[in-house]
User: What shape does this take?
Amino acid sequence: MKPADWLVLIGTLAAIVVYGVWKGRRQRRLAQYLLADRQLQWYTVALSVMATQASAITFLSTPGQAYTDGMRFVQFYLGLPIAMVILSITAVPIYHRLKVFTAYEYLETRFGLPTRTLTAIIFLVQRGLGTAMTLYAPALIVSLVLGWNIHITTLAIGVLVIVYTATGGTKAVSWTQTHQLLIALGGMAVAMIVAIRSLPASVGFGDAIQVAGHMGRMNVIDFNFDFSTQYNFWSGLFGGLFVALAYFGTDQSQVQRYLTGETITQSRLGLLFNGMVKVPMQFFILFVGAMVFVFYQFVAPPLFFNPLQSEKVRASAYAAQYQVLETEHQATFAAKRAKATELVAAMDAKDSAAVERKTAELQELQKRNDATRKEASALIRKNDPRADAADTDYVFLTFVMQNLPTGLVGLLMAAIFCAAMSATASGMNSLASTSVVDIWKRLIQKELDDHTYVRISKAMTVFWGVFCIGFALYANQLGSLIVMVNKVGSLFYGTMLAVFLIAFYVKHVGGTAMFWAAVISQITVFICAATMSVAWLWWNVIGCVTGVVAALLIQTFVRPVRTTVHAE
Amino acid sequence: MTIPQPPILRTWPRLYAAVLLSLAVEIVLFYALTRSFF
Assistant: This one.
């Protein structure tokens, strides 16, 4: 990076931290520190909810997915708007009326203290690991592409987040997130404009979409039903609905965002805005990836986008074999570029027969190119069996570093750092809330004054920040852990959702029945995950349905219990 | 406790319907985009 890029990056990050500390100053009461005094308007709630979900990996990995696999990943979000409507009708009024600080606090009123404590602990474990990964994954990618020390990158992001999250609490987190999300989306828009403007003069925006489409990158919707396919319309709509219900309805990192709304109306509007904007936003990020793909039809891409692995194999006993693959890759690229130019000419001439012919030829070359990349990946794995043989995550950042002008590189790096910081801040903030409200204040010291709880909350934020940094540094030694931690949420979300659904809607089910139903549901999900080839999105559905059915059945055999607080 | 109506579209059911309608429109547009190339 050039000095101008450093100036933009450091200036942006410093401004965010100073703004966060300033915005969150003078917080003396727990409701102020953990819920921004329940004073936020819908637009802050909406952007905060969106920024919490959109981590740096969203902006780094998603374009890479469009590059390699097309735009079908957008289907994962199709259930989200439905979930926003359901939660606006149900969860938002219940949480607001009970004036809870955490989602798990509500469960005590329904099922008793053990269920509250159990769900809070599951959340702390799951979100603690998840937040560490939110910190680690972008630090790894940025460090590899830029040649930075990963420990320093992780520490830099982590410490900056701790500074404003610990001092300013939820108010600082929510307000900084609104700016961070806008910077991240602005950065993506700039990258897309550069990708399109860098195409040859004969290739316009419409031509770029056509080329992407002919090359299979506009595969947005797939109605074919298949349990083992990760992303199709049905898994996106139903699996995605359950994931979104569980994530936004039971995960404190999200619940805390909309609990900050001034009224039920403000919280609802925030969630509904997210429901309207999320799918187009993900479409846009994937579209940027599709445009990067078109860009690389005319400008030579590297054979393998992960620079560390490429260098390692070039310095190994497989160097000669890798060199052969690189030569093959260059030759195929030259042929592809010529064919893509001919395809655009045929499209402009409206010669449909030629378009069909050139498309088939270009697709054939793409298949050859994919085969070469697969061989390179196999060679990398042969050289280092622990190496990450997928380079999807590195596509977008490589494009940014090699093709964006000075200054804009700094802006894109700031965008990625902002996204990493916003998701990490929400994680730390919610971990501190649950630790204080559900564990410390409920089980350890019940009668302290508000100001002391605020101090404990600040200490807890620092504790979880240090935990996440520590785990992120340790994760460097455990490459395959990232995938595991990403899926671990879906192992528990179904059961958590079942507990909350029963709590909200089935008043006659008591704590005993729910506890055993949760155990059965969790065991069922573990068995499915271990023995069946079911895509992980379905684990959420299986866990939730099993939990609800088991709770209803078990309740018929146990004595009915009276509940103290009911959902409406 | 009564919840005030939303500042746009007058009632909550209408606003919910608008969110779901926007999803339906997106699905139709995405399908049209996909179909134009496959």
In short: The CA atoms of residues 28 and 34 of chain B lie 10 Å apart. The interface with chain A takes residues 1, 3-4, 6-7, 12, 15-16, 18-20, 22-23, 26-27, 30-31, 33-34, 36-38 of chain B (CB under 8 Å). The longest helix of chain B spans residues 12-35.
